């Protein structure tokens, strides 16, 4: 399966956790849509690196993704999950790209 198909499927699988959907089903007002859409967007930004790393490792490597390390920053964790542990240059470029 193509990696972009896997990414789309992963994002759709997260829909069950959507704050917007739960608030919409609870009858939120139209002027509140933006708040819950923003909440879902921020959740996606936080989750996508893990999903992308899993897809990369599943497609091109052994399929095993290391656990998230709370002592590392966002970029270093992403690099670790991709399997690029020894390249500080890659981590720095990732920091610049992701921020």
From TrEMBL:
MF terms (GO), sorted A to Z: acyltransferase activity, acyl groups converted into alkyl on transfer
Biological process (GO) annotations? carbohydrate metabolic process; tricarboxylic acid cycle
Under the heading InterPro entries, the entry gives:
Citrate_synth-like_lrg_a-sub, Citrate_synthase, Citrate_synthase_sf
What the entry lists under Pfam families is as follows: Citrate_synt
Listed Gene3D superfamilies: Citrate Synthase, domain 1
Q: List the GO cellular component terms.
A: mitochondrial matrix
Protein's name in the database: Citrate synthase
Instruction: Cite the source lineage.
Output: Eukaryota, Sar, Alveolata, Dinophyceae, Gonyaulacales
